[in-house]
Design a protein that fits this description.
The complex is a heterodimer of chains A (111) and B (114). With 111 residues, chain A is mostly beta strands. In chain A, strands 2, 4, 5, 9, 10 and 11 form a six-stranded mixed sheet that branches. Chain A has a five-stranded antiparallel sheet with strand order 1-3-8-7-6, with no helix packed on it. In chain A, a hairpin with a 7-residue loop joins strand 9 and strand 10. Chain B is an all-beta fold and 114 residues long. Chain B is 0% helix and 50% strand. Chain B is globular and about 40 Å long. Classes of the chains: A mainly beta (111), B mainly beta (114). Chains A and B meet through strand 5 and strand 10 of A and strand 4, strand 5, strand 9 and strand 10 of B.
Chain lengths: 111, 114
């Protein structure tokens, strides 16, 4: 089967750094994506890792280790607006196909 | 830039009624995905289409059907609605063959079944 595990909640203060981990089990691996979703809003794409290593996009970075079936999303210089749910996801049967999401991590940023 | 459009944004139906949700992908996007998200849950993949053909099927109930039309818009038809069908329904689109695997999500249709 396919599954992705991530913590259900994370809390942090403004300006801090937070790491959201994701471990996965899948019969075929076609990359790991991260999406952000504010309450009641649409998921929005943050990053995609197909190969091992770190991808950086502004304050957000994503890391992948295929040998460990593990990835993480790193959020730096946290802002209140970063309070949202973060989902790791992989593709159903090849890159570009439907997303299978983890349960999501709710990040709460306080001042 | 144009985004994915979904209509209606809110829909209230009674049990056993039918509902039709519409999705208009970003212009030139040829792939459409439908997801269902219950309260406090992750989005669950229902069904996807590429070039008007069903490409993958997820956890879509037999009571639901969907199709993609020649202009690439898609409709999700839901019959014999149940209370458990109350959820946010997202449509997402993508241009196949693009360098990015990003899926662009619409604002969703909030379906309430009473």
């Amino acid at each position: 089967g396919q599954s992705l595990e991530q913590p259900s909640e994370v809390t942090a203060v403004e300006g801090a750094i937070v790491q959201i981990n994701c471990t996965y089990q899948t019969s075929g691996f076609y990359g790991l994506s991260w999406y952000q979703q504010h309450d009641g809003g649409a998921p929005t794409f943050l990053s995609y890792n197909a190969l091992d290593g770190l991808e950086e996009t502004g304050r957000f970075s994503s890391f992948l280790s295929r040998s460990d079936s593990y990835g993480y999303l790193l959020l730096q210089e946290l802002q209140m607006k970063d309070s949202a749910s973060y989902f790791c996801a992989h593709h159903l049967n090849q890159a570009g196909t439907a997303l299978i999401f983890g349960k999501g991590t709710t990040l709460s940023v306080s001042s | 830039a144009a985004g994915v459009i979904q209509s209606p944004r809110h829909l209230i139906k009674e049990k056993r009624e039918t509902a039709t949700l519409k999705c208009y992908p970003i212009p030139r996007h040829d792939t459409v995905y439908w997801y269902q998200q219950g309260p406090g849950q992750d989005p669950q993949f229902l069904i996807s289409f590429y070039e008007k053909m069903q490409s993958d099927k997820g956890s879509i109930p037999d009571r639901f059907s969907a199709q993609q039309f020649s202009d690439y818009h898609s409709e999700l038809n839901m019959s014999s609605l149940e209370l458990g069908d109350s959820a946010l329904y997202f449509c997402a689109s993508r241009l196949s063959g693009s360098d990015s695997y990003e899926q662009y999500f619409g604002p969703g249709t909030r379906l309430t079944v009473t």
